[in-house]
Amino acid sequence: MTMSKTKILVLAIGVTGVIAGSVAAYMYFKGGPAGDISGAAGSAKVVPDEAFMATYISTDPKVWAKLEQFGTPEAQKIVAKGLEDFNQNVLTDSNISYEKDLKPWVGGVMIAMLPPTSTKPAQLKLPSANPNLPPVTTQEPNFLMVVGIKDKINALNFANKLKGQKDVITKEIDYKGLKITETSGKGQPTYTAVLNNHVVFAPTKQTVEQAIDTFQGEPSFASKEGTNSILSKNVVENTVAQIYVPDYAGMVQQLINLNPQVQQLPPQTLAQLKQLKSMVMGVGIDDAGVRMKAIANLDPELVKFQYQNSAGKVVSQLPADTIAMVSGQGISSWWSAFVEQSNDYPEFKQVLEQARSQLKLANLDLDKEIFGWMDGEFSAAAIPSNQGILAQVGFGGAFIFHTSDRKTAETTFTKLDNLAKTQQINIAQRNIGGKNITEWQIPGQGSLITHGWLDQDTVFVTLGEPIADAITNSNGKSLNDSENFKTVTGSLQKPNGGYFYLDMDKTASLINRFATQNQSLPPEASAIINSIHGVGLTTTSPDKSTTHMEMLLALKKKSSK
């Protein structure tokens, strides 16, 4: 949407940004109108079925009030200042008070994305890759906003106030027995209509006409195939917003069609996209922080990869001070699925064959000796260290693999050691805590890479000498025992396929370490980062046709320093 359109939309509907984009900041301190997630189904009934995506935003004050329990005093001040600046820059200029004008009548808000109408002109000209050719013209999707009305009298009072706004001109247009209000000012007009308990807004008259047609019986987004099942899902507790995509492949194709500069997807890629049939994603606020969950409905006939739950043992094999970690299960299965699908993509197939050929020169089989034995759990982690070659960066890396084929894994590492010797790297043996490890040493710089076995089925590889000591000799304290890890991941769904974990305090320390006086983080960014424990993410798959993804932004309680 262009800036001129945005300005008119702000004038016409009392700053839409307050209702949708900035409602979070306002509710953080002031509370707001009712309009919980249950209103999504009703709003979807006035959205045309051509819509390929819709977002519903709750304006229930009880939902947003949950945010008040989080944040350091510094972060609270920053949010308060941002809210104050927003009110001064937008609300004051429009002579609109959220508390008096919007809160009494506004329910939840749905924003739907529709294809451009046939009569809608192209709205954006981009430079062509060839300077001798004219600019490429692209189209923007149509947006329809549906706002619930919980108090029609207050809504009418607000509409009358808008008519009295300076530089705002309104005109009423009859359409199938209902009135469309055209609101214009210094830019392009905005169109509005009241449909029983909802008011719809759009930058084009035809979009509002489509909404009226839908209200009077034409197929709606709610009746669209695949939508009903996802509209009925409340995927998170205390929901503040949900996104609905009933046809994922269709949505991607629609977005590509809007921009001629984007290369059309080949049939193989479209086939891959069709693995994901529909998706619903929700954002909520609970006692742990801000939680996001997504439920993807898959086509079991098209899905190649067989999901596996992870036992989580690798987490107990990492030190408690781990900065960040990714874990999972069955790299060999992922690799097999990739190899199978590469047959449909000549360019990927070519790269794969080149990689195989290069490794053959080093007497290594890519499929069997690199990925084939990685059939158990795995993890990749960043671990703090200030010793050796890691002194400057402050951390090193660790990789842990569980395998049922130790013989092949040992053969692989023996070949890699022999290859390193040809590159003037010294191969040395060392014992740590009763475990024999192999080090790749660079003259004058110390150990670069270390590998060894933690037990019969677990091999590790580390980057940087001190990291091997941290892996093999944890003194009984593992990441599983870390209070921060428990806080960030403890409420995530189990069983699961593994974790992504980030310790924000340790990450902030690294950021500050590399920041110079002139490039240090702004105080506002530091305050926000200091309000976060960390980020946790995981996935589960209860069956072959469904995948769940969950992410938690774990926030510190207000009393935390």
Annotation field: number of helices: 20
Task: Determine the strand fraction and express it as a percent band.
Answer: 25-35%
User: Any idea what the radius of gyration is?
Assistant: 28 Å
What integer is the average pLDDT? 81
Largest pleated sheet? 20 strands, antiparallel
Describe the structure.
With 561 residues, the protein is an alpha+beta fold. The protein has 2 domains: 269 residues, no CATH class; 197 residues, no CATH class. Helices cover 34% and strands 29% of the residues. It has a 20-stranded antiparallel sheet, with helices on both faces. A hairpin with a 3-residue loop joins strand 17 and strand 18. Helix 3 crosses helix 6. The longest helix is centred in the N-terminal third of the chain and has 22 residues. It is elongated and about 85 Å long. It starts with a helix and ends in a 6-residue tail after the last strand. This is Metalloendopeptidase.
List the helices and strands and how they pair.
Blueprint: H1 3-13, H2 16-19, H3 23-30, H4 40-44, E1 53-57, H5 61-64, H6 73-94, H7 98-102, E2 106-114, E3 124-126, E4 136-138, E5 142-149, H8 152-163, E6 169-175, E7 178-184, E8 190-195, E9 198-202, H9 205-215, H10 227-231, E10 239-245, H11 248-257, H12 267-273, E11 276-286, E12 289-298, E13 324-329, H13 331-342, H14 346-361, H15 366-372, E14 377-384, E15 395-402, H16 406-421, E16 426-432, E17 435-442, E18 446-455, E19 458-463, H17 465-472, H18 483-489, E20 499-503, H19 504-514, H20 523-529, E21 532-543, E22 546-555
Antiparallel strand pairs: 1-2, 1-10, 2-5, 3-4, 5-9, 6-7, 7-8, 8-9, 10-11, 11-12, 12-22, 13-14, 13-20, 14-15, 15-19, 16-17, 17-18, 18-19, 20-21, 21-22
Helix pairs in contact: 3-6
